[in-house]
Amino acid sequence: MRLTVNGEIKEFDKESMTIEELVKELGIKVPNYAVAVGMEVIPKSEYKTYRLKDGDKVEIVTFVGGG
Q: Matching SUPFAM superfamilies, A to Z (predicted)?
């Protein structure tokens, strides 16, 4: 499976994966992040069930607090 993640092409050995699986695969550990596939922001409640397809363009934005 080939995805474009934050503008970078990434290859995965899986034919399909959920957003939650992708985040784990990428090693993202921050608790607060948002995901868009194409131009659609995906609700966090769908991260476990939303299936990514070969060729999808994914943007993952992490939030960092501070002052």
A: MoaD/ThiS (SSF54285)
Residues pairing with 34 in the sheet: 61
**55 falls within a domain:** yes
Q: Is the pLDDT of residue 64 over 90?
A: no
> What's the residue count for the chain?
67
Task: Check residue 56 and report its DSSP letter.
Answer: -
Please state the domain count of the chain. Answer: 1
Four-CA torsion 20, 16, 56, 49, nearest 10 degrees: -40
Position 29 scores a pLDDT of 87
Structure tokens given for 64: 């960092």
Block residue for tokens 């948002």: 34
Q: Say if 67 falls within a structural domain.
A: no
